[in-house]
Amino acid sequence: MLAHDRKWTSEALFNILDNAVKYTPAGGNIQISVQIWEFYVKINITDSGKGIAEGRQGMTAQP
Predict the structure, then answer these.
(1) For residue range 4-57, what is the model confidence (pLDDT) as tens digits?
(2) Are 47 and 28 within 8 A, CB to CB?
(3) Which residues lie across from 34 on neighbouring strands?
(4) How far apart are CA 53 and CA 8, in angstroms?
(5) For the chain, what are the domain ranges?
(6) 36: number of CA atoms within 13 Å, CB side?
(7) DSSP string of 20-47?
(8) pTM above 0.90?
(9) 3-state class of 57 per DSSP?
(10) CB 3.0–4.6 Å: which of 28, 31, 38, 63 could bond 24 by disulfide?
């Protein structure tokens, strides 16, 4: 059993995985792992795509 906001979690995971597929070149790798901890679940998603420049990480979109 996992307590979570189903809509938000689905949307967030879809966006992350969609970007991983879009920006990982042919022959690249996408790895997904799940760790179940006592109070939460940790989902790691890594890919061999170009990534996000460090200076743009954590920024919100500008209109």
Answers:
(1) 888 999 999 999 999 999 999 999 999 999 999 988 889 999 999 888 888 887
(2) yes
(3) 43
(4) 25
(5) 6-50
(6) 3
(7) HHHHSPTT--EEEEEEE-SS-EEEEEEE
(8) no
(9) coil
(10) 28
Residue 35 structure tokens: 């760790």
- The radius of gyration of the chain's CA atoms, rounded to the nearest angstrom, is 14
Q: Distance between the two ends of the chain, CA-based, in angstroms?
A: 39
- Which residue do the tokens 């743009």 mark? 56
- Helix (H) and strand (E) counts in the chain: 1, 2
Nearest 5 degrees, angle CA 17-CA 24-CA 8? Answer: 15
Please report, for residues 3, 9, 24, 39, the alpha-carbon distance to residue 59 in angstroms, rounded to integers and kept in the order given.
28, 20, 21, 28
Nearest to 53 by CA among 23, 27, 30: 23
